[in-house]
Amino acid sequence: MMTSGKQYKVGVLGATGTVGQRFIALLAEHPFFVIHALGASQRSAGKPYIKAVNWKQTQPIPSAVREMIVQECKPEHFQDCAVVFSGLDADVAGDIEQSFRLAELAVFSNAKNYRRDPHVPLIVPLVNTSHYSMIPQQRALHQPPLKKGFIVTNANCSTTGVVVPLAALERAFGPIESCIITTMQAISGAGYPGVPSLDIVDNIVPYISGEEEKIEWETLKILGGIVQGDDGLKTFDMHTKQPLRISASCNRVPVIEGHTECVSVRFARRPPPSPQQVREALQAYTSEAYTIGCPSAPRHTVYVHEEPDRPQPRLDRDYQSGAGVCVGRVRQCRVLDIKFVVLANNVAIGAATSSIINAEYAVLKGIVGGQA
Amino acid sequence: MMTSGKQYKVGVLGATGTVGQRFIALLAEHPFFVIHALGASQRSAGKPYIKAVNWKQTQPIPSAVREMIVQECKPEHFQDCAVVFSGLDADVAGDIEQSFRLAELAVFSNAKNYRRDPHVPLIVPLVNTSHYSMIPQQRALHQPPLKKGFIVTNANCSTTGVVVPLAALERAFGPIESCIITTMQAISGAGYPGVPSLDIVDNIVPYISGEEEKIEWETLKILGGIVQGDDGLKTFDMHTKQPLRISASCNRVPVIEGHTECVSVRFARRPPPSPQQVREALQAYTSEAYTIGCPSAPRHTVYVHEEPDRPQPRLDRDYQSGAGVCVGRVRQCRVLDIKFVVLANNVAIGAATSSIINAEYAVLKGIVGGQA
Amino acid sequence: MMTSGKQYKVGVLGATGTVGQRFIALLAEHPFFVIHALGASQRSAGKPYIKAVNWKQTQPIPSAVREMIVQECKPEHFQDCAVVFSGLDADVAGDIEQSFRLAELAVFSNAKNYRRDPHVPLIVPLVNTSHYSMIPQQRALHQPPLKKGFIVTNANCSTTGVVVPLAALERAFGPIESCIITTMQAISGAGYPGVPSLDIVDNIVPYISGEEEKIEWETLKILGGIVQGDDGLKTFDMHTKQPLRISASCNRVPVIEGHTECVSVRFARRPPPSPQQVREALQAYTSEAYTIGCPSAPRHTVYVHEEPDRPQPRLDRDYQSGAGVCVGRVRQCRVLDIKFVVLANNVAIGAATSSIINAEYAVLKGIVGGQA
Amino acid sequence: MMTSGKQYKVGVLGATGTVGQRFIALLAEHPFFVIHALGASQRSAGKPYIKAVNWKQTQPIPSAVREMIVQECKPEHFQDCAVVFSGLDADVAGDIEQSFRLAELAVFSNAKNYRRDPHVPLIVPLVNTSHYSMIPQQRALHQPPLKKGFIVTNANCSTTGVVVPLAALERAFGPIESCIITTMQAISGAGYPGVPSLDIVDNIVPYISGEEEKIEWETLKILGGIVQGDDGLKTFDMHTKQPLRISASCNRVPVIEGHTECVSVRFARRPPPSPQQVREALQAYTSEAYTIGCPSAPRHTVYVHEEPDRPQPRLDRDYQSGAGVCVGRVRQCRVLDIKFVVLANNVAIGAATSSIINAEYAVLKGIVGGQA
Ligand SMILES: NC(=O)c1ccc[n+]([C@@H]2O[C@H](COP(=O)([O-])OP(=O)(O)OC[C@H]3O[C@@H](n4cnc5c(N)ncnc54)[C@H](OP(=O)(O)O)[C@@H]3O)[C@@H](O)[C@H]2O)c1
Ligand SMILES: NC(=O)c1ccc[n+]([C@@H]2O[C@H](COP(=O)([O-])OP(=O)(O)OC[C@H]3O[C@@H](n4cnc5c(N)ncnc54)[C@H](OP(=O)(O)O)[C@@H]3O)[C@@H](O)[C@H]2O)c1
């Protein structure tokens, strides 16, 4: 394996936030990534990490970063990093990530800012690592053209949950035609301080700003292909060969971690697959990330529960450290074809873990150079 | 008005349970119903109500029932009651309610046992009071034929929430063709002790036994009509003139009271109504129960929220004492036509309040005699 | 009664906050107070109330204030108000309340700013209305001396809960010598947005900044007397005639409304009263506010529960609209003398209701003039 | 070390319960205990474990026990076990554990039945392993006398939390004279189904049957010594050399795991130690179980938090796999001497982990023979 023995220095932007803390917890035990630099706002810069952060993880702060000095998010502090992870606020992620790319750094971002960029792949690592093929064009068309810098984003947490089983189903049964999704999303999805407790104890908020649009749009980019025009330029086809209509309804619920989603799908193919065929296809689905050996990719991309009342967020969100997706209750839908329940850990595969697998993949494939 | 000044004695079966307690709280302030007899299991019978009940309401036990002796659920203890409300467990409701009907009592039941009976109307009082027309046949075909006894049921709590707006939409825009529903149901819907706290704190259970089938079946009976065969016999048509396909996914969430439901509908009529037309139709919808003066029927059958993040169970479940239904987020659905969020108080309009309005209606229409 | 028929115009400062909203809900149904003016920050000023507020109460916004324009918190907008209630943030309450007093307005404040002022009475209306005797001196010593303006504060919500039963016990059995209190405080006590949900779902925070000091200090001022020095000046004696040692431990718990407190006390008198004597003394305790007819004062100042597992916040916080205090589990303490559990509604008697009863008392006693 | 390489077969009684499941999760990874037999009620007996159990842990069922057949709790099925752990219901634990002891088995029990037995040590392994000295007498006085059989119990979960820091303080500063404790206990402490969700969502229950008595009594047995009478018989002295008065108030709170306790203590010694001295003594405290090498004993017996708002159950309950105790907010108490907050994982050190360390200790000390 390419990485044998080799270590890669990585940086974390937004290191004090909810996603940033998860990055740090995960990277502290990583086989080949080594945390080298931490970035956050001016409020935090200059302080040792333990003073800057309001640590909310259940494991203690990894000793390697406790006293590491937090930097401002400027490329000069991250020049030695082969990989830069970003858990930045969308308010600032746009400019900062751009400046890092310009400094020839490889940026793996959780922010939404570049997800709709026509040259930035939106990669859920259990689904569409093939979209890395867009990177050369992203570098070439950049002003000025870049040698090593690029931005890769991963999807919104609620998109991730649904796109994994949909990808599995399309691989097995061909295009999906329509899909209705109702989410029940954890409070950690809103960061910290995030959702006021007065809004969510003994309550549900049937609305999350911008969330439904994200699911409806991002899913098309991720499940779609890349086409090459007559001018040689590649574009994301947004699943237009076989239009896919998606309708999402998003709810915030009093759960700490783990987004639960009720999904109904209609296949283009008639007759549609049976629930049993769907179960088998989901269980059999494997990701290229796992196959090529990304250490954080889960063995079970989709774990299919047979019990009638699973998956449940509290019991299932930490299965495989939250790196896979759990599906249960696969059954017929009287309106579309098949319905089921998905659970995805919004902070793990829905955020930090996706970025890390994406970076592992880029390392293993030689897309990230490494200034070793 | 028929009832002016007249008081009607009523009995409550299952008086110590979650629904039974709500009956008692509501009836204690009723303009013309007077609690006369309370029934529960042998464990409770013979005790004063205050000793028999594990009172869980936020108002104190009404003084009129504190010392009332709980009876076994035998018709002889309820002979003076013009109306008998039942909040019995499904385990025992079948036999007990039958024995009460046989004793010429008018039974208004929350239990599921007779909902699928071909002669028992399943009445959501804000929707299908017209189904009272089945009562004469129910009495006539009973062995032996009855003069006054009958059973009326109301719907399952999650059915009630969805059937009210669907009825409003069908009245305004003609038949609905298909409907996908995802519920987020309160723990009080499972009675007491009901849902163990270890199952629901920081969690969601994406399954409620039998619930999806209830919504999918009951809705058809309620929204359907009554047809008369060549033999003169009436039957419920189960909405077969225009088949209606319903698909429900039911979830238990950590909310005490108030079921929230995300609903997508497709109309038969093309083009479908716009979101604004839907909003207006919902807002304009009135029930016959309110029109003829049932005191517990809500002025706003459907309250339509304009705010983007409403209805919410904690804030909206007590509006109009929980007797109406709240709808919000009416908008286009990319797969079906229109989607929206419904909130219904499962213990009020979803249970006790429905029975009470049904009985008020029966009194006002002279269907219940009253042994005054 | 002095107020018969007469209406008093009142203003509410901080009208958009958690306490402010409760003021408005309560005042909308008040027999003699009429909401005349609303004040909040510049963010809110100039908007109709319904646009300025993020209404979080379970009842709808009272129609009388929906369209009322929110003002900046300047005295000129409140000149016609006989009474001004303040639910202002402590950050700004100091200056604003002072400017209102200077404008000869009667201010009833929930903020902590003037609670330790040697001329401002800290009045829990179920306990120490006698401290109104400090008002003439407050006016006289003000620079410049005032004719009508004054400030009265009520206590911190957790102080209120404990001081009512302590007052009852001191009235019956003489001085208390020491008292250990552990609180379990509702999230609404921190205002809105207040406690982040990530901090409190499935959790307890065993610390509330400044809260323990407030209980330990305020209780002494409230339960203490007023003494007159040789110079004729009155001072609060801080319970020094018989020193009272109080030790408080404060916790935030995932409860929406209602502070629960476990209290152990030791009496000076030996032998101490028995649990049964304590129960009787608590039950018998009446407030002068109730006796002279304050309409918001509760009939049961202290409601004593006999059940072993009460009071509970969800079930008991709305008893008497939250205007009284509930006590339960009165029993022997093996270390001090007697221990018990108190429940007080932090937003009602712990905040808005106290201010309102204080103002009712001032009106009935002629302390507030009324510009009628 | 005595155990090097050697494996010990163990059985688990009540293997399907809350504590039993935790036993299984912990034992599945144990260095020298191997699960050999599982026992539960007749309802479960004869079924493979996976069918008998309603598994509620966040890790999957260990593969080694998935298909193991659950037995009735009869000694013949456990004859090969060097150690038998019991997580039985108190209703049945008395007779079953007695029959196991009689069959010469070593029983480590969580049930309360034998905690008050004058010959059964009540051992919190971080505190009083010296009480193992009672075992020979327990065997000798049994009718008939036993060679190998015995029963050791561990403490109630809320006792465990408080007794560890009290032991540390007594070791450093001599006897404690009095102690007031208020607990906020997790729902998992009541087993499954345990606390109904309707009782605890948005609520506190200020009462747990029998719990206060357990804390007040068990603490004396654990912190006390063993004295030998003139007749040569040993008895537990219940801390009578220096009487210790304990007063506990117990509350159930909506937290899944981890009991939080607010503790105030008064030392016999005058002047009492300072908060800083207390902090140091707690931090320095080590258990014999750790010193002699029990693999499940925590390195930090007591972890002392410096942050003002810790420990918190959600963040701290899994530190050291829940095997230690966390203390925070050490400060002066105005009534007694010192107060602080304790957090103990009720299912780990409060139950299964204590039994396991007790058994490890017994193995390492040769008290348990092992039929190897
Ligand atoms: N919550 C309780 O249980 C409780 C109990 C006892 C006492 N208290 C005390 O009562 C007070 C209010 O508490 P809360 O919980 O209601 O807080 P909150 O929800 O945060 O409300 C604060 C209010 O102050 C206003 N405000 C903030 N800055 C202002 C400015 N510069 N000028 C004018 N108005 C300004 C806000 O108006 P905008 O909306 O315009 O920002 C809002 O109306 C505090 O002093 C608190 O300690 C609270
Ligand atoms: N939960 C805690 O935090 C905690 C802490 C300290 C001590 N404890 C004590 O530990 C014990 C277990 O508590 P838990 O919370 O685990 O209770 P639980 O969840 O109710 O489990 C009870 C167990 O007892 C078994 N059982 C019941 N009746 C039986 C019978 N007739 N014969 C044989 N087995 C029978 C059950 O088996 P089936 O599944 O076959 O019914 C189940 O395995 C109790 O004594 C409790 O007081 C609990």
TrEMBL record, chains A, B, C, D:
Keywords: Amino-acid biosynthesis, Methionine biosynthesis, NADP, Oxidoreductase, Threonine biosynthesis. Its EC number is 1.2.1.11. SMART domains: Semialdhyde_dh (SM00859). GO terms for biological process: lysine biosynthetic process via diaminopimelate; methionine biosynthetic process; threonine biosynthetic process. PROSITE patterns: ASD (PS01103). Pathway: Amino-acid biosynthesis; L-methionine biosynthesis via de novo pathway; L-homoserine from L-aspartate: step 2/3; Amino-acid biosynthesis; L-threonine biosynthesis; L-threonine from L-aspartate: step 2/5. Gene3D superfamilies: Dihydrodipicolinate Reductase, domain 2 (3.30.360.10), NAD(P)-binding Rossmann-like Domain (3.40.50.720). It catalyses: L-aspartate 4-semialdehyde + phosphate + NADP(+) = 4-phospho-L-aspartate + NADPH + H(+). InterPro entries: ASADH-related, Asp-semialdehyde_DH_CS, Asp_semi-ald_DH_pep-lack, NAD(P)-bd_dom_sf, Semialdehyde_DH_NAD-bd, Semialdhyde_DH_dimer_dom. The active site is at C157, H259. It holds the Pfam family Semialdhyde_dh. It is an enzyme of class 1 (oxidoreductase). Residues 9-135 form the Semialdehyde dehydrogenase NAD-binding domain. GO terms for molecular function: aspartate-semialdehyde dehydrogenase activity; NAD binding; NADP binding; protein dimerization activity. NCBIfam families: asd_EA, PRK08664.1. Belongs to the aspartate-semialdehyde dehydrogenase family. Catalyzes the NADPH-dependent formation of L-aspartate 4-semialdehyde (L-ASA) by the reductive dephosphorylation of 4-phospho-L-aspartate. Mediates the second step in the biosynthesis of amino acids that derive from aspartate (the aspartate family of amino acids), including methioinine and threonine, the latter of which is a precursor to isoleucine. This is Aspartate-semialdehyde dehydrogenase.
